[in-house]
């Protein structure tokens, strides 16, 4: 092989090594970004679960309040009907 051809092959090999190095660097950078995104997602998922639990507790409290109000309303309506019947 002549020197010119060897030099071109050496240059091409050098370019390939540089390209692989750049690809590895980019891949590591992307892996780091992915790790950060996964951490953020996990954090958001945890917050979402906490908020969901909080909302369920609030709904349970509202449901209990509603049941109490309905019972009280029925009792009051019954008492009003009884008083009306006594006065007639």
UniProtKB/TrEMBL annotation:
The keyword Coiled coil applies. SUPFAM superfamilies: Tropomyosin. Residues 20-65 form a coiled coil. Gene3D superfamilies: 1.20.5.170. It comes from the Bacteria. One of its GO terms (biological process) is cell adhesion. GO terms for cellular component: bacterial-type flagellum. The keyword Coiled coil applies. Keywords: Coiled coil. This is Uncharacterized protein. It comes from Aquibacillus salsiterrae.
């Amino acid at each position: 092989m002549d020197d010119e051809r060897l030099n071109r092959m050496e240059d091409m090999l050098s370019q390939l090594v540089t390209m692989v190095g750049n690809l590895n660097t980019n891949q590591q950078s992307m892996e780091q970004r992915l790790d950060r995104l996964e951490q953020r997602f996990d954090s958001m998922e945890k917050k979402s679960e906490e908020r969901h639990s909080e909302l369920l507790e609030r709904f349970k409290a509202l449901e209990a309040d509603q049941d109490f109000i309905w019972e009280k309303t029925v009792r009051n309506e019954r008492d009003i009907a009884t008083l009306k019947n006594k006065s007639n």
